[in-house]
TrEMBL record:
<keyword id="KW-0472">Membrane</keyword>
<keyword id="KW-0812">Transmembrane</keyword>
<keyword id="KW-1208">Phospholipid metabolism</keyword>
<dbReference type="InterPro" id="IPR043130">
    <property type="entry name" value="CDP-OH_PTrfase_TM_dom"/>
</dbReference>
<feature type="transmembrane region" description="Helical">
    <location>
        <begin position="122"/>
        <end position="144"/>
    </location>
</feature>
<keyword id="KW-0594">Phospholipid biosynthesis</keyword>
<dbReference type="InterPro" id="IPR050324">
    <property type="entry name" value="CDP-alcohol_PTase-I"/>
</dbReference>
<dbReference type="InterPro" id="IPR004533">
    <property type="entry name" value="CDP-diaglyc--ser_O-PTrfase"/>
</dbReference>
<dbReference type="GO" id="GO:0012505">
    <property type="term" value="C:endomembrane system"/>
</dbReference>
<keyword id="KW-0444">Lipid biosynthesis</keyword>
<feature type="transmembrane region" description="Helical">
    <location>
        <begin position="92"/>
        <end position="110"/>
    </location>
</feature>
<feature type="transmembrane region" description="Helical">
    <location>
        <begin position="150"/>
        <end position="168"/>
    </location>
</feature>
<feature type="transmembrane region" description="Helical">
    <location>
        <begin position="7"/>
        <end position="25"/>
    </location>
</feature>
<dbReference type="GO" id="GO:0008654">
    <property type="term" value="P:phospholipid biosynthetic process"/>
</dbReference>
<feature type="transmembrane region" description="Helical">
    <location>
        <begin position="205"/>
        <end position="223"/>
    </location>
</feature>
<dbReference type="Pfam" id="PF01066">
    <property type="entry name" value="CDP-OH_P_transf"/>
</dbReference>
<dbReference type="InterPro" id="IPR048254">
    <property type="entry name" value="CDP_ALCOHOL_P_TRANSF_CS"/>
</dbReference>
Length: 235
């Protein structure tokens, strides 16, 4: 039973580990690998909260652990990736600018954690979630060969300010399938086909494990929700 209750935290720690590995790949010059690991982290991040509710294993520790994982995988890892792929040419200034992203992200996470405990509204987010912002940076670097550097710089700057803005972003928590993970899984599934055809090489083997497992998780959620709906209709 204790192992069952620990499953959501294990998934969160796996998310954090993806962030750590992404930083290592970026430092080694394997930028596609680094970006893919951030996207895998998005899949895991979309699962842990729902698993906690499904297994009735929600806890304050799990919430805090999730925030710590998010700042590494979607704050620090994307900032290193953006530095090594774009901002390195500006030397120390580029390093300093890249470092702003996790600062804005950390502030956004802290504000969210405080407001979540004092507000009952779950219909919207205030500011762009760090998960989405980090995922966008990962995608930008993944397709860096076709996206002009000025576009990436503008989007990077905009995301920093959008995370701490007061703009209301609709929440997708009530949608039965995970909000970010579904899109990311479809993207990774398409990417597997590209890899198979030989267009890309040397992607981390985790992609071959994470994508099928996540698709299986989505299928389970879909079947479970369909059964619950049929049960409610009978009643």
């Amino acid at each position: 039973m204790r192992l069952k209750k620990s499953i959501p935290n294990i998934v969160t720690l796996a998310n954090l580990y993806c962030g750590f590995l992404s930083i290592g790949f970026a430092a080694s010059g394997e930028y596609n690998n680094a970006a893919i690991l951030i996207l895998i982290g998005m899949m895991l991040d979309s699962m842990d909260g729902r698993l906690a509710r499904m297994l009735k294993a929600e806890s304050k520790m799990g919430q805090e652990l999730d925030s710590l994982a998010d700042i590494v995988t979607f704050g620090i890892a994307p900032s290193f990736l953006i530095y090594y792929t774009y901002f390195f040419q500006f030397d120390l200034l580029g390093f300093a600018v890249a470092g702003l992203f996790p600062l804005f992200g950390a502030y956004r996470l802290a504000r969210f954690n405080v407001s979540a405990s004092t507000s009952s509204s779950g219909n919207y987010f205030t500011g762009v979630p760090i998960t989405a912002a980090g995922g966008i940076l990962a995608l930008l670097t993944l397709f860096g060969n076709v996206i002009p550097e000025i576009v990436t710089t503008v989007i990077f700057t905009a995301l920093c300010f959008l995370m701490v803005s007061r703009i209301k972003i609709p929440s997708l928590k009530e949608i039965p399938l995970p909000k970010y993970g579904t899109i990311v899984t479809l993207f990774l599934g398409a990417l597997l086909i590209v890899i198979y055809t030989g267009s890309y090489t040397n992607f981390p083997y985790l992609i071959y494990i994470a994508t099928p497992l996540y698709i299986a998780y989505l299928a389970y959620r879909f079947v479970k929700l369909k059964k619950e709906k049929a049960q409610r209709n009978k009643e």
